[in-house]
Amino acid sequence: MRPLLVLAFGLLLAACTRIGYDFADVAPAGSRQPQVLTSPQSDTVTHPRFGDRKPHPWGKRPPWSYAVHGTDVSRYQTSVDWQAARAAGISFVFIKATEGGDRLDERFHQHWRGAKAAGIPRSAYHFYYFCRPAREQAEWFIRNVPREAGTLPHVLDMEWNHTSPTCRLRPPAETVRAEMRVFLDMLERHYGKRPIVYTTIDFFDRNGLAEFKGNDWWLRSVAAHPDDLYGKHPFLFWQYTGTGEVPGISGDADINVFNGTKAQWQAWLRRHLR
Asked: Which domain holds residue 59?
């Protein structure tokens, strides 16, 4: 009987050690804890202050006054240490997947896998091409970006490409908005989440996007707070630099903030990481 009792006790201990439990809520009283957020996927460092190769003299609402920061990447970020980026305060990432109707970013899958392995919430973005119908572009995105649980809403990147060698078309604003709806509706039906719209101030103004309703917005504004450029137009994310310095990312990095408190970030993640 004694060997059987020892064996049974050993099996019980082994089972107990496999229970996944976060003991952060029972830390000793008075112990100093880092300021983190426990999200459905990761612990998120809050209020990081990254370096910048070309810093802007921000006024009363600097980017680091926002709790949650992230980045966006494409083929230009050839190698990223996602664990180092996460430890430094990168809490989400938007990864370029497609452009037009036939271009797949060559580092999409590499970044997609790396961010997931590091526990960083991520989504993919599509760079819009004005010389191809929105339906074909949405079909191309859907063909290349997997539908999987645990991703953030994907992104439609709407901006003029002033350096495109193949397309200088500038459609009327009504056409732009109509094509945007086609793309957004198709992705929402396929992935079950309404995509976020990324844009710049010149594109926003030229195409009357202040009247484009029903979407969350990611706004670029690198020399002023978005309220100073876009008025009181709501935004969910703010891209505040393209020359940031992020541990784990070589060279210039885009850095973004989530427009909300720690609690609001947690709530938003719970709604969208499904």
From this structure: 44-272
